[in-house]
Write a structure and sequence with these properties.
Number of domains: 1
Structural class: alpha/beta
CATH architecture: 3-Layer(aba) Sandwich
Strand content: 15-25%
Helix content: 40-55%
CATH superfamily: LmbE-like
Number of helices: 9
């Protein structure tokens, strides 16, 4: 039986656990940088707890550097991703670059679905991080549709925010991880040159921490943390 929860009810359930349960963690990143910008603090905590993390980059963000050819941009952004993972303590062998079309991920759904199902089958994650379906970016919404189609059983999901602040029911305190997260963000020099993501997203993390009632929580990441069927029941039909 499918259980639904209205989005406006989530904030009433707000809690701040030290970390989400699960020792096998999968991250869906529509582009290189989403894994750091959206959930980097939590991933650092998982690493520090000894958990295994795999990161799937659905695209390599080939449209993301003004004035450069897509092939060169792919090389730059994948190298930046590897550097960011190293800073966070995630082995390079645990990164998978699917190279779907940046900005048009929905055009390759069948191919992306097959690859995602293979990762799920091989890894059997306990917890999956992905961008919120409320995030106003077409590829981020497609990532949600992709996971919804790929799952064959319920799993806990933690939806992170980047472009659009959402309504969270969980905060993860990343105050002690923020310096490492910031260093990992700085690995994405090509993207910071396009937009000051560092200031914007650290500001968002500071807001999430500062507006929580515990004064010891200085920086936090905000999540929609739900069982997958409950989470996807609230997702709109289209972007």
């Amino acid at each position: 039986m499918q259980v639904r929860i209205r989005l406006h009810q989530l904030y009433a359930q707000l809690q701040a656990p030290q970390l989400f349960a699960g020792k096998k963690i999968l991250v869906l990143a529509p582009h290189p940088d989403d894994e750091v910008f959206g959930c980097g603090g939590a991933l650092i905590k998982h690493v520090q707890a000894g958990h295994e993390i795999q990161v799937v980059y659905l695209t390599s963000g080939e449209q993301g550097i003004a004035g450069k050819m897509p092939t060169e941009t792919i090389e730059i952004r994948e190298r930046e991703a590897q550097n960011a993972l190293e800073i966070m303590g995630i082995p390079a062998k645990n990164a998978f670059f699917f190279r779907g079309p940046d900005g048009a991920l929905h055009d390759k759904m069948a191919e992306m679905l097959q690859k995602t199902q293979q990762v799920l089958q091989n890894f059997q994650p306990d917890l999956i991080y992905l961008p919120s379906f409320l995030d106003r970016h077409a590829d981020h919404f497609t990532a949600n549709r992709l996971l919804q189609a790929a799952l064959v059983k319920n799993v806990q999901v933690a939806a992170y925010e980047i472009w659009t602040p959402h309504i969270p029911n969980r905060l993860i305190d990343i105050s002690r991880q923020i310096a490492i997260k910031q260093k990992a963000m700085q690995a994405y020099a090509s993207q910071l040159a396009q937009l000051d993501y560092e200031a914007a997203l650290l500001g968002l993390n500071r807001y999430r921490g500062g507006m929580y009632t515990n004064p010891e929580v200085v920086y936090a990441e905000a999540y929609m943390y739900l069982r997958s069927d409950v989470y996807f029941a609230e997702m709109p039909a289209s972007y």
